[in-house]
Amino acid sequence: MSYGVALLVLLSMLMAATASFAKSTPESFAPLVKRLKPAVVNIQVTQQAGKAGPHEGFEMPQVPEGSPFEEFFKDFFDRRQEQGPNRRPLTSVGSGFVIDKEGLIVTNNHVIDGADEIRVFFHDGESLDAELVGTDPKTDVALLRVQPPEGMSLTVAGWGDSDTAEEGDWVVAIGNPLGLGGTVTAGIVSARGRDIRSGPYDDFIQTDASINKGNSGGPLFDTDGKVIGINTAIFSQTGGSIGIGFAVPANLAKPVVEQLLKFGRTKRGWLGVRIQTVTEELAEGLGMKQPRGALVAGVTDDSPAGAAGIKSGDVIVQFNGQEIDEMRALPRIVAETAVGKTVPVEVWRKGELQTFQVELGELEQAEKQLSMTEPSEPREDTSSTVGSLGLTLSPITEALAQEFGIERETGAVVTEVNPDSSAAEKGLRPGDVIIEVNQEEVTNPKEVAAEVDAAAKNENRSVLLLVQRGEDRLFIAVRLNQS
């Protein structure tokens, strides 16, 4: 009897396991596709011939061979060059999906960028003109609106939770590849959190579901029929799919769409810091047990971070209760936080943790104000050579400021780098401006030399430099040359 009971239990377990496996690997995607396909639309974009668009006169940017956007840029600029005052209108196609029965449609920004006319084609052959509600180039998301006539019922694609998507999960892509119309492909989630250097908030879902030109803006569905991503880019050396596609996660796109609907533009949280990755060497120099967080390389004047007391050299390890395990997570988390909200920010400063209360500003307003700020006039001082660093330094003169595009008054400009020095190994180069040594501000070469001498007398093996390079600020740990 006990043997029979055990056998029944074993059979039940096997049946449960089989049912679970069957759920994750459907025998057919047909029922899912039949339900979802009407929610996916084809988008045709027209730009009038002879119109001087926002890219008129621009040359094609140099991008690495085989990069995700190589083929996109090549196709875009080839078509721009063919355009002339007596030529036919420029036409391109993409995909999108309906998110509201009133006529709201999501697609990619690059699908509709520069459009004079946008027309949406539905699964049943109906087509409608669309208006642009709002767009966000930073996440490559755009929101359109159509006015469905009386009697026309739209099928809606619902948002899913992209954070729950795991590597190996089945996904389905529906779109308009190569202008062929509604096409279905299936695959799996190949990777999460991909950074393809297309924008500041890269967090792409990678999939091997076939994605080609024209799929851009279309949905990536999970097996529950929820949108977990917007198909955006492919990695290809030929322009065709090789099984490496990228989708903007739904959890990143959804709040952007909500802001576009409400304001016609985005309103992102703004902290006002320039940050960099904490390497193992930097972590050691900062007294941290392991690399983590985002190192503050600079604090913008009159920013929320500055007002709260956050300083250059702090390492942000937690923001609003969320751990910052790596630097690139911070901009995304800050951007998704409501403007005007006061949040706790935990930083590592000189060997201890401190918490600051920061009231976030609005990123878009800050960018607008910063773009209107005029550079100040540089001033002169006396030159100096710091042999222990392998650097020749100069004050900021008018000539150097013009040569290297320096837009600050104080600091020490690197004019020469000893090729055998640690500074050369770490990538310091002429035009870099040293503005801190071991987290102490320096305004000229003499002060740099004094701080380095003090470090040498304390038998420090290296110094931590804060370097201004163009618009970026970088912390660089440089080993002292032993005399």
Automatic annotation (TrEMBL):
EC number, as in UniProt: 3.4.21.107
GO molecular function: serine-type endopeptidase activity
Pfam family, one: PDZ_6
Cellular compartments annotated: Periplasm
Stretches the record annotates as Disordered: 368-389
Protease in keyword set: yes
This protein's UniProt keywords: Hydrolase, Periplasm, Protease, Repeat, Serine protease, Signal, Stress response
Catalytic reaction equation(s): Acts on substrates that are at least partially unfolded. The cleavage site P1 residue is normally between a pair of hydrophobic residues, such as Val-|-Val
Span of domain PDZ: 260-351, 387-471
Signal peptide: 1-22
UniProt superkingdom: Bacteria
Active site: H110, D140, S216
One biological process term in Gene Ontology: proteolysis
NCBIfam families, alphabetized: degP_htrA_DO
Family, per entry: Belongs to the peptidase S1C family.
Name used for this protein in its record: Probable periplasmic serine endoprotease DegP-like
Organism of this sequence: Minwuia thermotolerans
